[in-house]
Amino acid sequence: MKKMVVLVMLLMAAMPLLARNIVKNGEFTDGLTDWSNWANGAWANPGETGTGTIAFGWVDEATFGQVTGHLIKSNTKYTMTVTLKTINQSGGQAEGVVLIMQDATAGYTDIVRERHWFPDTYNFGGSPFGAQSPWLQYSLTFDSSVMTGTVGHDLLVAIAIGDDGRWDAYGNLFLDSVVVNIEEAEDPQPANGATVPDSTSELSWVNPVDTSKCDVWFGAGDANELDYKSKLTKYEITGTHVIQPPARQTLAMPEPLAGDKYTWVVNCYRGIPLPTEPNLPGVFWSFNATPLPLIQSDPSNQLVAPAASASFTATFTSSNTATAKWFKEAGETDVEVAAGGDVTITTSNVGSLYTSTLSIANVEMADEGQYYCQAANVGTTVSAAANLAVKRQMAYWTMDSKDGGTYADSSSEGHNATIINDPNILTGVKNGAAEISPLAGVGNAGTWNPSALSGQLTVSMWIKWAGAGGNQILISKANHWQNPGVYWEIGCGSSGNLFVLGGSSQVGLPGSTLKAGEWQFVTFSFDGTNGSLYVASVNDSGNTLIRDTGSFVLGDTPDAILWIGARGTSDASVPPVISPTEEFSGLIDDVQILNYSMDVRGVVDMYNAVIDPDKNFCIDEYASAADLVNDCKIDMADFVEMAKVWLDCGLYPVCP
């Protein structure tokens, strides 16, 4: 137990405190913006180069500073931290630095000022000419709970070059950062300055570390440090949060929002017993509440045949009169979809609930894409986008020839596959077929994704397997054998077992399913949820269609290369080179890819389109229990088989 306590304490020690830097451009990423020379100042030229570093000085008592615009809060500890270095220059060198915080409202009077001398090693004469100190860091602190007269006044921060009276304070300081931190609650939701729907149900924020309790002050209108207790209402957060890392806290919206500006602040307490006033007071946040439309349901994806109809429906609520528009995503500038011709848009409402429907008749390829609804009243809200995909053949490689070093795509999509080493073109199940081997015939069809809009897939091919030889890949969309390298792939093992791999799933058939030297039809169909793998042989005189169905998930690499007869693998170069591996051994013919899921009847039709339009397959699995004679029919022959045991009482050990 002691070890656990020590571990928790170490983790807490490593946890940074939540704090906000109130200095503007404190790391000088915008050069000298927001900073000025307050006395005898001069920017050194040249200074140290590099983004985020400023050099100043070379004038006696040069002072560099900023009016932060931050109104000092009550019961707050302010810590100023400066990171700098000095350099031994010809004619003089800064010997120290003065850190200053002033009350700009009260005539630039000092709140606190401290002089820090550099170590002797870096003083004038103590180091060789041109030597630079390492980066040095100095801090200055004041507590407004003690210096109460500063509350509500504008804070000024400054840095001056100091000397010990022996020499004028000439030389340069190189400033890397100037930070004034205060601890407070952070990351408000709604975000500061945001516009939110009037249905927003809660406030949330991140507490500072080791917070004992917090109070939330909330109300309509503007408020600040001086008047918030009279304008806002206090809501105490119940429960204690002692000894904890920064944690998100929530509060149900204290009052119904009414389309107005709201201000809130989270004041927190640290310590036991609790102090009488918050010692971690917060910054004031505000947001505007407007009755924006609130999406209730998003449109659904549509996958339709050419010339069919598609429709998208979105619902939203609006407390005042609203309208709806539909858009099609088109790169950086989306295109509004206008009613007319084959496009119909209807919007209706019952009270505050609106329903808008986009309908497209006679869908064609130009209609494919992503669509969303934009609801508008005094502001706008958009629904999620939904896909419209047109069912079609995405690729068809007949494998009859190797013209121009490619397997030509006979579909209308133009996905020709580049051949890796010329194969032999032999007699196929239909015209020619490519002989694939580890040395020749693999095709690279590019990185396009047939499932991009549809989320579905059908891959079919005819193969004549050469036989055992380790794992072989028939076709794949993969850059590596491990997830997430595989988007999907169809492969076989040395025993003739057939499998399909996805992101974290597999569908498979047992050994001896593939038969060496025999033409077989292999099809994989994925409907977005389940995958089905089918195999049928040319030489099978019966009606057998071997299949396996199971849940299936596509992988995480939709831009992987689509390989015919292999899987991809990447080497160690940067960027990696993708090359084929685990090549298939045998003949491949008539490869088709569809962007939709083909059902079992469609698979039979694809087989019959090549072999025998009159061939029948037994496809209804429900019949298997009653088909006692195994002829894929339930008829008198099955009744006779059942009648043979009609009088068997089924009791054990004997019938009465």
Indicate the percent of residues in helices: under 10%
Number of helices: 4
> Could you tell me the mean pLDDT?
85
Major beta-sheet overview:
8 strands, antiparallel
Q: Pick out the low-confidence regions.
A: 1-18, 44-51
Share in β-strands: 35-45%
Radius of gyration: 38 Å
Secondary structure class reads: mainly beta
Terminal-residue CA separation = 70 Å
**Strands, count:** 46
What form results from the Cα inertia axes? elongated
Report on the structure:
This protein has 656 residues and is mainly beta. Strands 29, 32, 33, 35, 40, 41, 42 and 46 form an eight-stranded antiparallel sheet that branches. The two termini are 70 Å apart. The model is unreliable at 1-18 and 44-51 (pLDDT under 50).
Topology of this protein?
Layout: H1 2-14, E1 20-21, E2 36-39, E3 54-57, E4 63-71, E5 77-86, E6 96-103, E7 109-117, E8 136-143, E9 154-162, E10 172-182, E11 186-189, E12 195-197, E13 202-206, E14 213-220, H2 228-231, E15 233-236, E16 248-252, E17 261-269, E18 285-290, E19 294-297, E20 302-304, E21 310-317, E22 323-328, E23 335-337, E24 343-350, E25 353-360, E26 369-376, E27 380-382, E28 386-390, E29 393-397, E30 406-407, E31 417-420, E32 425-427, E33 432-436, E34 442-444, E35 457-465, E36 472-478, E37 486-492, E38 498-501, E39 506-509, E40 519-526, E41 530-537, E42 546-551, E43 562-564, E44 567-570, E45 578-581, E46 586-594, H3 600-608, H4 636-643
Parallel strand pairs: 12-18, 20-28
Antiparallel strand pairs: 1-10, 2-4, 3-10, 4-9, 5-8, 5-10, 6-7, 6-9, 11-13, 13-16, 14-15, 14-17, 17-18, 19-21, 21-25, 22-23, 22-26, 24-25, 26-27, 26-28, 29-46, 30-31, 31-34, 32-33, 33-46, 34-43, 35-40, 35-46, 36-37, 36-43, 37-38, 38-39, 40-41, 41-42, 44-45
